[in-house]
Amino acid sequence: MHRTPHSSPHLRVMSVLGLLAALLLPLGMTFAPGALAAPTADPVRVMPLGDSITGSPGCWRAVLWNRLVDSGYKDIDFVGTLPPQGCGQAHDGDNEGHGGELVTNVADQNLLPGRLASTRPDIVVMHFGTNDVWSSIAPDRILAAYTKLVAQMRASNPDMRILVAQLIPMNPSSCAGCAQRVVDFNARIPGWARATGTDRSPVTVVDQWTGFSTAADTYDGVHPNASGDAKIAARWFPALSAVLDAGVPQDPGDPGDPGGDPAACTARFRAVSSWQGGYQGEVTVTNTSASAVSGWTATVVPANGARLDQLWNGSLTTAANGTATVRNAAWNGTLAPGASATFGFVATAPATAGNPAATVTCTGTTPAA
After folding, report:
1. Helix (H, G, I), strand (E, B) or coil at 146
2. Which one of 28, 46, 205, 308 is most buried, by most CB atoms within 10 A?
3. What is the C-alpha separation between 94 and 112, in angstroms, rounded?
4. Peptide bond preceding 57: is omega within 30 degrees of 0, i.e. cis?
5. Apex CA 359: angle with CA 307 and CA 56, to 5°?
6. Where is the CBM2 domain (predicted)?
């Protein structure tokens, strides 16, 4: 990761090569065009992970993104299975902030591995647990969920850099005990991080609590307003920029890497329409490999208790826990490199489910040699 205002390893290499060229050119030696070009790296992928404070609309992400770009960090990519949700300013809005989610449920239901597989982050920026604290879940159980998620992050990327927030204050009118429960939980996070971090995959605690006012910085005692967004972004920025400046090892298993095991496809979910008790969704499967695939299988994990009932342009199998497996139809399984196929579905959902959301992944089948 390079930042324009600071010297990077690539720039230092260029300086050495430039000096070498200056010494050799008088001797009649020349370099082919592009011979001194700096090596390029994939953008560093940053996953914002959490609940509605992160995702809906989670405008601190927009503030943070633009501050990073304005500070010279160009090779960054915010990633997640959820799309941008407004905020009124241009930014990379992909995120993994699912409204209403409990971190304990994400751990118990193993929801994170599929999301990691779809987005392959190098860094996770996590503010997660507000709904668990609100639900009076014990700190020990929340921290156990944190530990499980960290293990899943490292299974996805052994070099994962993890930034974990001490939660912003919470004082909703319906929860008299929430304010103190946040204080009690936050006090446990630094010790958990010291025990969980490793040299290869460090865990950095970011204090989002100090200086944050539920009266001035939220609109309902929980969710940040514009002032709160600015404060959250200001706390994430130095911690994230320090990780970027230190350099992030790129995942050796990225698609397209020589000798890697490239993913055959990616899948992306879109909500077409919604109504009380259900919604229509659409998933686009894209062949991201260099070869044609002869078939594909997508996995759809609907959020918040939804369940797929009807499906077209594929065949549907639904597990007892609601996880749906969709296989291509006879006419849309063969995809050339870069080609896509789309299937649609209707899902039923509890009245309290909130905005439609789903985690989607896929695998492809290459033709027999």
Report:
1. helix
2. 46
3. 16
4. yes
5. 100
6. 258-365
In single-letter form, the type of residue at position 195 comes to: A
Q: Is the pLDDT of residue 369 over 60?
A: no
CB 13 within 8 A of CB 7: no
Distant-in-sequence, close-in-space partners of 7: CB < 8 Å, separation ≥ 6: none
Q: Residue 4: is its pLDDT beyond 70?
A: no
How sure is the predictor about 34, in pLDDT bands with cuts at 50, 70 and 90?
very low
Length of the chain: 369
Q: How far is CA 43 from the centre of its chain?
A: 14
Number of alpha carbons in the 13 Å side-chain half-sphere of residue 79: 19
Q: Would you list the domain boundaries of the chain?
A: 10-40, 44-246, 265-365
**How would residue 338 be classed by pLDDT, with cut points 50, 70 and 90?**
confident
CB 351 within 8 A of CB 282: no
The rounded distance, in Å, linking the Cα atoms of 82 and 75 is 21
DSSP string, 162-192: EEEEEPPP---TT-TTHHHHHHHHHHHHHHH
For residue 112, how many other CB atoms are within 10 A of its CB?
Answer: 25
Q: Give the CATH fold of the 265-365 domain.
A: Immunoglobulin-like (2.60.40)
Which of 68, 171, 70, 162 is closest to 112 using CA atoms?
Answer: 162
Q: Is the pLDDT of residue 142 over 50?
A: yes
According to CATH, the superfamily of the domain at 44-246 is SGNH hydrolase (3.40.50.1110)
Q: Which helix (H) or strand (E) holds 346?
A: strand 340-348
Residue-by-residue DSSP string for 274-316: EETTEEEEEEEEEE-SSS-BSEEEEEEEESTT-EEEEEESEEE
Q: Return the residue matching tokens 């229509």.
A: 280
Task: Give CA–CA dist 56/234, Å, rounded.
Answer: 19
Tokens of 238: 């130095």
Give me Rg for the CA atoms of the chain: 23
Three-state SS at 28: coil
Distance CA 62, CA 293 (A): 37
Q: What is the pLDDT of residue 355?
A: 86
